[in-house]
Specification:
Length: about 675
């Protein structure tokens, strides 16, 4: 399947724009129809998916990569196969690859380079801890986000790429400029191989060029194996040079022991804590980081001759010339050439001696200068200034006074090292950033963004205000940068004291507005809508006339809340059934004459003829027959409260009065 815009993969991912074309396939920007988010999809070429063994390894690697969960790693969301093409669904990282920044800026400041190296090392450390080796660390696989965060991409793909034979497509050698010596010679790549590749990137960032070049990919790979990297310029701080050179060591044992140790050394060097850097990477001492580096001295870097002096007695034969060897044997010849070239120098290697010779020559040139050179230059400049001031005071320049030279306060990069010892701030430059009272020209300060980015906004504002600058706040939400962390400054460089500088800082993730149309929806619809916005669903069951499961109220509706907040949704229990009235009691059948005498009454206008009894005097005791004063016979048995009503049968008094009297007498 050839990917084109408008195609839907897995009935879920709509391809929109092609981002890049690589050796392994194409990367497309796509929209996830289920979750409504933008993703990046890497679709492999058919020549790779046609191999069942490769596909199986690719599936396993995709599963392993998906286990990574680190802010410096582009996450893997999904994997699929469609019409013979396999694809990976990954996190879409906004920004640009480091390769684009290198093409545009060519050289970065040492501090900025260390920041990129340190962040990349932390991401690699997370992968190494899971047993994953990147194997293709290069600027194109390091994405730089708008807030200057590094995201390492294409984990696992490179691991599978070097399973492909070199003669198949040549793609393995496509990035030979960043291959470690062990990879170039066909050995097993380890976490140390990723550190070497990252060292090549750091070297390129501070120097503007790669350490090894050649007319072909094979020639570059052989240079990685045989040649020592050219020394970096002395203008680069000595600790930075030592760290990068240790990362580029041919012997993996001379490199930082792990990516986490490398990240710790980067932090220590940026903070000027060289003892901490040495504890993190002890081999830095072999590359010049020690007492000399801590005091700013640029002593010659003398590497120990361990593991190299064993070949001294073999003679001074030079390495075999492998440039004309066939490509098929280049890797093996490269390994042999590396061993021979390292043993040919005799002591610590020709590159070390060249490094030391250059440093010695530089020191000799400095020593050959007359000690009076700089004092004489300063005296001449002072005399010229006095002359100009005198002429200005006499009105020879139109009465305008020549201002004194502007005082510049240089703000060093945060924690960056310098090859010169730190000087004590003068009373006119560093201790008082306000304009001088004796000069009509205001002072200036040199502000570098790298010195403040990533630091708390409160600290940055206080420091800039101390320098005499007016700070304008520019808060911006960010999903990746912690709240109150500075992400940028504008303008930078030399600034006049009293000028305004805009400081952009993160306010944390942007707040989410709770939808206002949830009332009337079902429980499932409300839950899905909230989860799509990254909000947690919290339910309360309440009484209501709506059908059961219907949303009747959302108290936070329309409010802005933080992502991940719980939103209370009140759901109807359903209408409550109205209780029906109890049916009226059915009347009991009328008693027969033989059994109704105790409850029968006969109206009579004459008093009873029977003897006086408790039933006839109207004052019968409780529980017995009660008679009314008018002579009517009440119920013989008194009824207790709550008992069923007594049914009374009426009859002419002439028929029933004697029987009632007899009954009354019988009860007495």
């Amino acid at each position: 399947m050839r990917p084109t815009g408008g195609i839907t993969l897995g009935d879920r991912y709509d391809l929109t724009d092609r981002i890049a074309i690589g050796g392994m396939g194409e990367v497309w920007k796509a929209r996830d129809k289920v979750l409504g988010r933008i993703v990046a999809i890497k679709i492999l070429k058919e020549e790779y998916t046609g191999d069942p063994g490769f596909l199986e390894r690719f599936r396993a690697e995709a599963r392993h990569t998906a286990l990574l969960n680190h802010p410096g790693v582009a996450n893997v969301f999904d994997y699929g196969e469609e019409e013979g093409s396999a694809y990976l669904v990954m996190e879409f990282v906004p920004g640009q690859p480091l390769s684009t920044i290198i093409e545009r800026e060519r050289v970065l400041s040492p501090d900025r380079a260390l920041t990129i190296v340190g962040q990349s090392a932390r991401a690699l450390s997370a992968a190494h801890a899971k047993g994953l080796v990147h194997r293709d660390v290069k600027p194109g696989n390091l994405m730089i986000t708008p807030d200057n965060r590094v995201k390492v991409t294409d984990f696992g793909i490179a691991r599978l790429a070097d399973q492909v034979p070199l003669t198949a497509t040549g793609q393995v050698m496509g990035t030979a400029q960043y291959l470690s010596p062990e990879q170039a010679t066909g050995q097993t790549a380890t976490g140390s191989s990723d550190i070497y590749s990252l060292g090549v990137i750091g070297y390129e960032l501070v120097s503007g060029h790669r350490p090894f070049t050649g007319e072909s990919q094979i020639a570059i790979a052989l240079a990685q194996v045989n040649d020592d990297p050219p020394p970096l310029d002395a203008s680069i701080p000595a600790p930075v040079r030592a760290l990068l050179m240790s990362m580029l060591s041919k012997d993996p044992k001379q490199r930082p022991a792990s990516a986490s140790a490398l990240a710790a050394a980067v932090d220590a060097i940026r903070a000027g804590k060289y003892d901490d850097a040495l504890r993190a990477v002890p081999t830095l001492a072999a590359f010049g980081l020690g007492g000399g580096a801590a005091t700013g001295r640029t002593e010659a870097i003398r590497r120990p001759a361990t593991s190299r002096t064993t070949a001294v007695s073999t003679g001074s034969s030079t390495a075999p010339h492998t440039a004309s060897l066939p490509v098929a044997g280049a890797a093996a010849a490269g390994a042999a050439g590396a061993s021979a070239s390292r043993s040919a120098d005799g002591d610590a290697g020709g590159a070390d001696r060249r490094w030391e010779d250059q440093q010695d020559a530089a020191r000799n040139r400095r020593r050959s200068r007359s000690p009076w050179t700089w004092p004489l230059v300063a005296l001449i400049v002072l005399l010229l200034l006095i002359l100009v001031a005198t002429l200005a005071g006499n009105g020879l320049f139109g009465g305008a006074r020549t201002p004194a030279p502007a005082t510049t306060v240089t703000v060093p990069s945060n924690g960056s090292s310098s090859s010169s010892p730190p000087s004590t701030p003068s009373s006119t430059a560093a201790s008082s950033p306000t304009p001088s009272t004796t000069s009509s020209t205001p002072n200036t300060v040199d502000v570098r963004a790298a010195a403040y980015e990533g630091r708390p906004f409160r600290d940055v504002r206080a420091e800039l205000e101390t320098l005499g600058l007016q700070v304008r706040e520019n808060p911006q939400p960010s999903d990746t940068v912690a709240a109150n962390t500075v992400t940028g400054l504008d303008p930078t460089g030399p600034l006049l004291v009293g000028s305004t500088i805009t400081v952009t800082y993160s306010t944390g993730p942007a707040q989410v507005t709770v939808p206002g149309d949830l009332v009337g929806k079902t429980r499932a619809q409300a839950q899905a809508a909230l989860q799509a916005l990254g909000l947690a669903y919290r339910e309360e069951i309440v009484a209501g006339d709506q059908p059961a499961g219907t949303v009747v109220q959302v108290p936070e509706s329309g409010r802005a809340v933080d992502p991940g907040s719980s939103v209370t949704v009140r759901v109807s229990r359903g209408p409550t059934a109205t209780p029906s009235a109890p049916p009226p009691p059915s009347p009991s059948p009328s008693p027969s004459p033989s059994t109704s005498s105790p409850s029968a009454t006969a109206p009579s206008s004459s008093p009873s003829t029977g003897p006086s009894s408790p039933s006839a005097n109207g004052n019968g005791s409780p529980g017995r027959g009660k008679g009314k004063g008018n002579g009517n016979a009440g119920a013989v048995d008194g009824t207790t409260p709550g008992s069923a009503p007594t049914v009374v049968a009426t009859a002419p008094s002439s028929a029933l009065a004697p029987r009632a009297q007899s009954a009354g007498n019988g009860r007495r």
